[in-house]
Amino acid sequence: MRKLALSPLLLALAAPVAAEPGLPDEASVAGALDAHPSVLAARERVGAARAGADARAVGPHELTFTGSYTRRNIDLEGDFDEFDAQLTRAFRLPGKARLDRAIGTHQVDAAENMAEDARHQAALILARHWWDWLEASAAARVDERAVANYRSALNAVRRREELGDASLLEVDQAEAALGSARVLAEQSAGEAQVARSRLQTHFPSLAIPVEAPEVPAPDAEPDSLDRYRDLVIANSHEIAAAEAQARAMGSYAERTRMDRIADPSFGVRLFSERSGAERGAGLVFSIPLGGRHRGALADQAAAEAGAASADAALARFTVLETAETDLAEARLRLSSWQRAREALDAQMSALLRQRRGHELGEIDLADLLLAERMTHESFRTEAVARAAAQRAVTQLRIDSHELWLAD
Which one has a higher pLDDT value, 129 or 179? Predict the structure, then answer.
């Protein structure tokens, strides 16, 4: 009997490309991240924090001018023009200006770190959509090649049927296999297009090629990933922002406590009475007398400072969890991909034996088609596992700031 023409899918799917295999150009990524709305908003908040710091450094007190004009009438004496003018300004008590400057500095520090963390989160979103596209496209390529293989097989079976070397049942079996492969190929191609559309929508300025790059074989060893795990914690802007915010709240609490003694106001006063018959100048002084309200505000600020310190500790726990999870995920996905490659090699070996048996007439077409389908599934599983491994390594590198976020 003639050999069924079902050629294997090409192993070239695993070929590495470019200096950063499988990833978009770094300059294009930088521009896409800078243009992301979340990054733009965070940078505007940095500007707001700097303006707020300048305002705190200058202080809240300004010159206040008050004045009055009166026309008085006195019986038997006549009408008199009288006026009063006063210029006053409050002054911060010693230590308050220092704390105001400290609050502003810490708030700017927090805003800058939050802006970097916003860029970090945008990079994770880009990587997720990018690998969604590459994974779906890799599966679509496998399915497309499977359709081509089944189409060739169907043509071969039809020729054999015309020569009386195959039955109509075998033709039906080959047509059914081709139909199933076409359905899967259309679904995977549609999923790849959806993934590309999502990537383009979130990052319109990113240079996206028409065809998705092939997913390269991961080259990271599981034991070499520990360095990235340590860098996730060391380079975390989330921790830095939370700690800066805690310092700002601590300074604010101390500032509010000092504000229980209000700032005094000093000024000068000029007046003229009885149309200038009486004139004078003098100094004025005032100070609010604080009470329970100021004490309650001080207690509130102290509690908020304690909460900010707890939030900073929580941020450290969260980042530590992220680091450990990223490392475990990367190791798991790399191991899964290696097992998938081993399974694919074994399945290819089994397929060659099935084909040989079919040539010798020992295995019928149904069994061979089943073996071909299992081989197709093995190629698909390997492609998806390869993309998942690269996705996990990419996330670990982004979280460690070794990819796209060097600062």
Answer: 129
131/27 Cα distance (integer angstroms): 18
Contact 109, 50 (CB under 8 A): no
Q: Please say whether the beta carbons of 214 and 15 come within 8 A.
A: yes
Listed in order, strand segments (DSSP E) in 190-349 are 265-273, 278-286
**174 strand-pairing partners:** none
**Could you tell me the pTM of the whole model?**
0.82
Contacts with 30 (C-beta within 8 Å, 6 or more apart), sequence order = 404
Q: Is residue 358 over pLDDT 70?
A: no
Answer whether 248's CB lies under 8 Å from 107's CB: yes
Per-residue model confidence as pLDDT tens digits over 79-132? 888 889 999 999 999 999 999 999 999 999 999 999 999 999 999 999 999 999
Tokens for 226?
């520990």
| Domains of the chain and CATH, by start | 11-62+93-262+297-399 (1.20.1600.10)
Q: Which residues contact 33 (CB under 8 A, 6 or more apart)?
A: 39, 119, 122, 123, 126, 404
Least confident of 7-21, 297-311, 342-356, 383-397: 7-21
Cβ-proximal residues to 132 (8 Å cutoff; 6+ apart), any chain: 195, 198, 199
The per-residue pLDDT for range 278-327, each reduced to its tens digit, is 888 999 999 888 788 999 999 999 999 999 999 999 999 999 999 999 99
Instruction: Report, in this order, helix, strand and coil percent for the chain, each rounded to 5.
Output: 70, 10, 20
Asked whether the beta carbons of 150 and 181 are under 8 A apart, the reply is: yes
* 365: CB partners within 8 A, 6+ apart: 4, 157, 166, 170, 173, 174, 358
Compute the distance between CA of residue 93 and CA of residue 97 in angstroms, rounded to an integer.
8
